[in-house]
């Protein structure tokens, strides 16, 4: 018996992690993201490109982060489309240099890339900053035999 909300429409699923926003945690963020992407069924060449983009995004956020803050990464996927969101608390407004080489690398490897800045948060002493990117699979791999 099907629940009325389960009409057969494809569902997206969000998976994420939080690590300290510190340079020595970049390897951990990379490894966690790689695991998520592989489990979600992305091919190795797709994972390589997505990880390179994510590495650039995460590095930019960590360099801008308030000491002691955290980096949160969330991936949402459905039907060959991946959405990624990475956020932290930045020391300054507009902290991400969108003219930097790393930003251009991330923009080249993704189909959408944007930064969102929120107003200063006095309780947390920083500016909530989020970078989102999206990627669309160009060709679906053949379905595995059942």
Q: Based on Cα principal axes, name the global outline.
A: globular
Radius of gyration: 17 Å
- The chain-level structural class is alpha+beta
Total helices: the number is 3
- Total number of β-strand segments? 5
Helix percentage: 25-40%
Q: Order of strands side by side in the largest beta sheet? A: 1-2-3-5-4
**Termini Cα gap:** 23 Å
Q: How can the largest sheet be summarized?
A: 5 strands, antiparallel
Mean pLDDT: 88
Percentage of residues in strands: 25-35%
* SSE topology string: EHHEEHEE
Runs in which pLDDT lies below 50 for 5 or more consecutive residues are 141-146
Description:
By secondary structure, the chain is an alpha+beta fold. The chain is 30% helix and 29% strand. The protein has three helices and five strands. It has helices spanning 26-39, 44-64, 101-109, and strands spanning 13-20, 70-78, 81-90, 112-117, 127-136. A five-stranded antiparallel sheet has the order 1-2-3-5-4, with helices on one face. Helix 1 (26-39) packs antiparallel against helix 2 (44-64) and helix 2 (44-64) runs antiparallel to helix 3 (101-109). The model is unreliable at 141-146 (pLDDT under 50).
């Amino acid at each position: 018996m099907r629940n009325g909300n389960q009409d057969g429409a494809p569902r997206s699923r969000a998976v994420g992690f939080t690590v300290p926003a510190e340079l020595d945690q970049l390897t951990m963020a990379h490894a966690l993201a790689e695991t998520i992407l592989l489990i979600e069924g992305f091919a190795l060449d797709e994972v390589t490109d997505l990880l390179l983009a994510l590495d650039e995004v995460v590095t930019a956020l960590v360099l801008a982060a308030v000491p002691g803050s955290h980096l949160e990464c969330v991936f949402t996927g459905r039907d060959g489309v991946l959405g990624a969101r990475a956020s932290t608390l930045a020391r300054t407004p507009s902290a991400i240099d969108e003219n930097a080489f790393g930003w251009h690398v991330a923009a080249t490897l993704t189909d959408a890339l944007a930064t969102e800045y929120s107003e200063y948060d006095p309780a947390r002493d920083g500016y909530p900053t989020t970078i989102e990117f999206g990627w669309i699979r160009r060709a679906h791999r053949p379905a595995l035999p059942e």
